[in-house]
Amino acid sequence: MLDRIRQPALVVHGNKDVVVTPINAFILAQRLPNAQLVMYPDASHGAQSQHAGVFLEHARMFLNG
Description:
Elements: E1 9-14, H1 22-31, E2 35-40, H2 47-50, H3 52-64
Parallel strand pairs: 1-2
């Protein structure tokens, strides 16, 4: 059903997440037609807060299209 979602999506993940393994982010981004994947190095399940500054830049760029 993911292939029917046409809304752009920003998939953000940490490469050292042990709660949701990183492969799931790759699969999600691959199956969403308009997805952009950002994988943060040395980040766990809280990648957005661990890399807050760069995450805000990525979010701004994504939202401004």
